[in-house]
Amino acid sequence: MDNFYIADAFTNKPFYGNPAGIYVESGGLSDTEMQQIASEVKLSETAFLDQIGDCCFSIRWFTPKAEVDLCGHATLASAHILWELAAADKAQIHFTSKSGDLFARKEGAIIYLDFPAEFPSEITDLPKEIAASLDVPVLSVSKSRLDYIVETDSQKSVVKAQPDQTMISHLDRRGLIITSKSFSPNYDFVSRCFYPKLGVYEDPVTGSAHCQLAPYWADKMGKTSFKAIQLSSRQGQLSVRLNKDRCEIGGQAVTVLSGNLLK
């Protein structure tokens, strides 16, 4: 059986959404080898899986530079591959991770991830790394355990933003999310995400960012179910549901490569 796959997450067509590497049955790899593989592959995240029970798998995520605690798109891509391989024969997959227990569930063509919600708090002092970096209006700045969130005035400003990558690499969080309400009736809000500290200058579609954006926009919109689009060059669409301290993030995925990765 092939041991390595690339799948595009949060899209229903190849070469859109966010590509992730998936290494199946990685138990023989050391931490150093996992990091070397992720650096070689050069995708924003590569997931490493091992089966530990019936429809239960351990999962770890590596960027080209470091291991991370949580990654939405690579988890969605991993669930897609496991179902495609018939390695999981139930409608729900249980993942154990550094962020605790995570779950992936199929609803028709959509895979929903059940992740912990991350609740951002608004701050009044704009970090100098953000103030010196942005060239768009800033309506508010919040931060969570993971990232800083900047709300700007329009979808046009989200698209226009070109934050200084060197400056935001010095933030005391993983990275920076820029967001606004959507001008399209098909979506509630839009975003872009930047993680130069992790070697990912702009992430195409970021599931874990929406664990923060759902509580953020729930406070502002008075609702808990959203349609969202991440406006990177590849773009990706997400369905997001906030349920108390959990966040369900839904999307599709397509396989674009399979083979054997040698070491």
From TrEMBL:
The active site is at residue 45. The keyword Flavoprotein does not apply. The keyword Isomerase applies. It comes from the Bacteria. SUPFAM superfamilies: Diaminopimelate epimerase-like. InterPro entries: Phenazine_PhzF-like (IPR003719). Keywords: Isomerase. One of its GO terms (molecular function) is isomerase activity. GO terms for cellular component: cytoplasm. Belongs to the PhzF family. This is Oxidoreductase.
